Each structure stands twice: as C-alpha cells, then as structure tokens.
Amino acid sequence: MPDAPDLFNVVDAYIDALFAPEDEVLRAALHDARTGGLPPIQVSAAQGKFLYLMAKLVGARRILELGTLGGYSTIWLARALPDDGRLVSLELEPKHAQVAGLNISRAGLSDRVEIVVGPALETLPGVIDGADAPFDLVFMDADKLSYCAYLSMIVNSLRSGALILADNVIRSGRVLEAESADPNARGARDFNAMIAAHPRIEAVILQQVGIKGHDGLAVARVI
Questions:
Q1: Mind listing the pLDDT tens digit of every residue in the chain (223 residues)?
Q2: CA distance 17 to 46
Q3: Angle formed by the axes of helices 147-154 and 120-130, to 10°?
Q4: Are residues 177 and 200 in contact, defined by beta-carbon separation less than 8 angstroms?
Q5: At what angle do helices 45-57 and 6-19 cross, to 10 degrees?
Q6: What sign results for the dihedral spanned by CA atoms 15, 82, 30, 164?
Q7: Which sign, positive or negative, has the C-alpha torsion 128, 85, 23, 8?
Q8: What is the pTM of this model?
C-alpha cells in the first residue's frame, strides 16, 4: 500500500472510478479547458459528483454558481436540475466563459444554463434582482477575498433549507494563521468565521485531501 500523500491520490482515483466515472462530455470539457490554457483548478470528478448529489438532495430548481472556469462543475450541477431548472454562473474572464459556453452546449445544457461575464461583485446584484425564484443552492468557487461579500449579498435571496457550498476554505491549513501572507487564506478564514456565527446559517467544513491537495469544502444550510 502506498504511503500518504500517494495513498490519498490512489484512493481518490478509486472513488472517482467507482462513483464518478467521466463520460465523453466531461472528458472533453477538461480537454478543452486544458488546450485553452485555463488553469487546472476545477473540482475533481468525485467533488463534481458530490455537488450533483447535494443539488439532487435539496431538490434544486434554481442554482447560482460563482466561478465558471471551463464549465466542468457547471455541467455536474446542471445535470441535477429538472428540465425547467435554471443555473446562473458568474465568471470574471471572458476567455473562460467562452470555453465554458462551448462545453455546456456540447453537454446539451444551454437551455438551462446562463453565464454572466464580469466581476461578480458588480454582476451579482442584477442576477439576484432578476431571479424569478429564490435560489436553492449556491456553489462558491471564485476569489476567496470576496467570499464574505458574496455571502452578504446572497443570503437573503435563498429560501429556507437552501444550501451554500464554498470551495477551497482550508488552503492547506493556512487558514490557521490569522496573519497569513496568503490573502486567499485570510479571505477563507474570515468567511469560515462568518458562516460559523451567522444567525441564519448552520454549517460545517469538510476537510479534504487527495488529488486536489489539502483543502476543504464548507457546507452550509440556510435556516
């Protein structure tokens, strides 16, 4: 048996193969993101399956995603929606949005996915105001410095029982350092404290190790 961290990677591969085998659409999405020069920071296959299951468990009909990248996580989430469901994904970089749009179209999900391009702090208010129903699930996978601001803007647009999932909130343990040199770690630390103390939220963080390194996913439920 391999030693850690190799063992973590081998177990991740085992979980991916058993529970989240990628089909041609997902493999093509990763290929296009790679050849398009996008950073390889998308969720893993098992993490994508987890997002899918969370959306299914909460019966999501309206999903908000912050950080589209190449559309890999978007595809997993959109596949959990009913035919009349809707997912809005906010992406800063036009190049990323273009790659994601092609991947989402190939997946046959363009009818239920909208990509909004621009800084999320600027586009999010319009998305919230234009929503035809409260969001059932939010997946945050964007700049950690803005996580607290995103939460403040989003929380009142979520129904009771809605889920907030926020990725990369452990930062290889750097969130333990109050004065970390990593601004993303400081942003994640502030966000973690915010959801822990928020009167409308009950939450926990799942620490993760594996092919994505050492990080964590915050799972929060709106009361």
A1: 677 668 999 999 999 999 999 999 999 999 999 999 999 999 999 999 999 999 999 999 999 999 999 999 999 999 999 999 999 999 999 999 999 999 999 999 999 999 999 999 999 999 999 999 999 999 999 999 999 999 999 999 999 999 999 999 999 999 999 999 999 999 999 999 999 999 999 999 999 999 999 999 999 999 9
A2: 9
A3: 10
A4: no
A5: 50
A6: negative
A7: positive
A8: 0.96
156 backbone dihedrals φ, ψ, rounded to 5°: -80, -5
**Residue 77 is encoded by which pair of tokens?**
């989430």
Question: Three-class SS of residue 94?
Answer: helix
Question: Exposure of 130 by Cβ count < 10 A (0-12 exposed, 13-18 middle, 19+ buried)?
Answer: exposed
Question: Which residues touch 156 (CB under 8 Å, ≥6 apart)?
Answer: none
Question: Structure tokens of 2?
Answer: 């391999």
Q: Token digits for 5? A: 């961290």
Tokens of 108: 């046959």
Residue 153 CA to chain centroid, in angstroms? Answer: 17
Whole-angstrom Cα distance, residue 16 to residue 46?
Answer: 5
DSSP for 162-210?
EEEEEE--SGGGGGG-TT-S-HHHHHHHHHHHHHHH-TTEEEEEEEEEE
Q: Which residue matches tokens 């970089």? A: 93
